UniProtKB/TrEMBL annotation:
Keywords: Hydrolase. This is Hydrolase CocE/NonD family protein. The keyword Hydrolase applies. Transmembrane segments: none annotated. It comes from Intrasporangium calvum (strain ATCC 23552 / DSM 43043 / JCM 3097 / NBRC 12989 / NCIMB 10167 / NRRL B-3866 / 7 KIP).
Amino acid sequence: MADVQTIRAGLQDIVVHKDLRVPMRDGVTLAADVYRGTENRPRPALVALSPYGKELQALALTTPPQRRPSPMWDGCIEAGDIARVVAEDYVHVIGDLRGSGDSEGEHIGNYNAGGVSLGQDAYDFIEWVAEQPWCDGNVGMIGISYFGSMQIFAAAERPPHLKAVFISGGHYDFYETTYHGGIMWFMPRAAREGRGGDSGWAFTDRTKSRMLETYSPEQIKQRVAERLKDPDVAAWPNLVHVLHYPKHHEAWFDIVMNELDGEWYEERNPINLARNIDIPVYLQIDQGRGWTVDGHIELFEVLKGPKRLDIGSYPPMQSRPWIEEHDKMFRWYDYWLKGIDNGIMDEPAVSVFVEGSREVFTAEEWPPKGIDHRPVYLRPRRKLSLEPEPMGAEHAAPDGFYQAPLTVTDKVEIIDWSTAPFEEPTEMIGTGAAHLFVEIDQPDTNLILRVWDEAPGGTRQLVTTGFLKASHRELDERSTEGNPYHPHTRAVPVEPGVIEEYVLRLYPFAATFLPGHRMVVELSNDEPLTDAHNALLPPDAFHLPVGRPVTHKIYRDAVHPSRLVLPFTRQAPPSAEDER
């Protein structure tokens, strides 16, 4: 029988039901903790589901919220402010997914990657919650990141008592979550294994690799050998370890072994599942984590029912325990779960915070203003200009940099270009592109581009980023001016010594460059582990470095017009001087 106790949290008493057993349709039971008010009456319930462990989420009652770069920040405490949920007269239900924490069952791979669908479990969990005496039959969901992704899995299954969801910082296109522009991102390793600012999954011995479940030992051996032919992978000790000892890193092994997009990722892609969602969905994301902003916009455009998109301000990482956005969340749930007409559905569907001007624009669609994609050209002497370079490469010789692998150096080479100070406020909202004409002396490299807003005096803030593995340079049919897409379904080695045009997707952003500020564009093939932006991210939130020495020549002349294509709003034409 579950333990029921009353605890004191701040100025209120909370009734806690510990270790309830929630039956799934296949006989497995999941573990759950329930937090509610002391009055013995039914209330709407908010469900939080993840493999991070319900006991870790309970720290929200005792640990003050931490912001990066605090060493006490733990990226897995994401289920929300328990005391606030109870104070707002909701029941907070925190469950362990199968194969994690105190729950039974096997968890195979990542998210829906084989075994019992996590969406199916979420359906059963939600319907069980709705039947309990402390729930009035109205159920929503709560939690960010993994908890947010679980809300999409749940809503796509259409449990009858799930009335609405509120998602902050979820991850949707899982290929783009783990391979930015085809470049492997290490953060999923941290979230699963517990590294660099994350406690990780509350693993049990019932979590398995889908790859190991699917292929024979001989097939796995052959596929591992093929993966180790990638010099980037072979040069990174952690990846060598994962590939040789996969049972110690089952979930991360699956990601490393699937470096191309395709069926393995698409069958569990929430963007695809979202087409089945018909309940109200509120999407909230803060600027600074471009691929996540991109995913929220893509999901918003797919949804057919009542929906909201709220793009908030920098910095990129919320507090842990997570406490932000609760005011917005309770307005949403008060309307959809309690029937309180608070006017939220009379407001525009899209709200966007603009960095720099610190204005908020609302509209019915993204972007919230009309835009024109306009070029900003790379020029000699490391300048950015609204006018293209008139001279050919024989006079406007290319820029360049050489990057040694990080096995032999600690220095990441970065080349930059910048505008003159802006004379008038210059506003940009939307996605962008970088067209770079590059010659390399190897079959592959990374292209990592970052756009900064630099204030007088040198302080700066990241505006947007773009990533592309050179062998993934192919574009697909969705691409338009300023809005490129890459299929990432095959790798095509580069012919050394040949100038190629690479088109990088610049993730969505909203920023106004104020008078006196400059736009600074940086290009590298690795990234610094610590700078003004990366210091705000968890320590493992960086990308796989290139494992071979590469010389890069960046052509930006009349024949090779390297440029950024940026989303200038029509109300604010560009005004930076062409010359420094």
